[in-house]
């Protein structure tokens, strides 16, 4: 059985009930969950399962394995309450989508530069590109266009393109449609004010854009 990923159906859920499906030492699986596991550069959620802190969340194929404290007393078939750190989740959702906008603007305005990395944490997001020159030269244009999209309060559609294979996408009508399996906000206005910065140099022809919430 594949875990039902409620964070896709409703990424604003802060808690849910679930049934323990497997227990292997301090590694457990659930029948359904709201705790996102690191994927596509997006950090895992923090949270608790039956009051035990989630130490790690690992995506394995379509399953998610959670590590909790070794002193737990959970058993297969037990119903538990699952709670996420909502403040962390919401910041990550906003930073994640800000990074998605940056990436799409780069694709549309600068001849589709190759993305070579990305990471979305609670404190900031980053996107890395193959790029000749100093990427700070394009940041004013990116900042302007990004603010326009944020201020437009455009609805964000998040759906499956292939539910069986768990392939998802986001779409803003008139702007872009991009494959992505992360957790997404409902409209661009939720992001609020952002700041784009050039990150540390990664080597020859490699540049980084960092994204911060103001």
Automatic annotation (TrEMBL):
Its cofactor is Zn(2+). GO terms for biological process: alanyl-tRNA aminoacylation. Residues 167-210 form the Threonyl/alanyl tRNA synthetase SAD domain. Keywords: Aminoacyl-tRNA synthetase, Ligase, Metal-binding, Zinc. SUPFAM superfamilies: ThrRS/AlaRS common domain, Translation proteins. It holds the Pfam family tRNA_SAD. This is Threonyl/alanyl tRNA synthetase SAD. One of its GO terms (molecular function) is alanine-tRNA ligase activity. PANTHER family: ALANYL-TRNA EDITING PROTEIN (PTHR43462), ALANYL-TRNA EDITING PROTEIN AARSD1 (PTHR43462:SF1).
């Amino acid at each position: 059985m594949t875990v039902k990923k409620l964070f896709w159906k409703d990424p604003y859920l802060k808690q849910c009930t679930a049934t323990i499906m497997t227990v292997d030492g301090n590694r457990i699986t659930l029948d359904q969950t709201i705790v996102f596991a690191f994927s596509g550069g997006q950090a895992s959620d923090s949270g608790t399962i039956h009051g035990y802190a989630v130490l790690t969340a690992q995506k394995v194929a379509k399953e998610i394995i959670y590590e909790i404290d070794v002193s737990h007393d959970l058993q297969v078939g037990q119903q538990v309450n699952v709670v996420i750190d909502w403040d962390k989740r919401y910041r990550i959702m906003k930073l994640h989508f800000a990074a998605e906008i940056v990436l799409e603007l780069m694709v549309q305005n600068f001849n589709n530069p190759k993305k070579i990395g990305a990471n979305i944490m609670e404190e900031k997001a980053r996107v890395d590109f193959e790029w000749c020159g100093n990427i700070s030269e394009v940041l004013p244009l990116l900042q302007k266009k990004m603010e326009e999209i944020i201020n437009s309060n455009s609805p964000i559609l998040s759906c499956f393109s292939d539910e069986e294979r768990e392939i998802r996408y986001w779409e803003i009508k008139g702007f872009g449609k991009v494959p992505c399996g992360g957790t997404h906000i409902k409209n661009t206005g939720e992001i609020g004010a952002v700041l784009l910065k050039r990150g540390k140099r990664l080597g020859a022809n490699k540049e980084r854009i960092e994204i911060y919430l103001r």
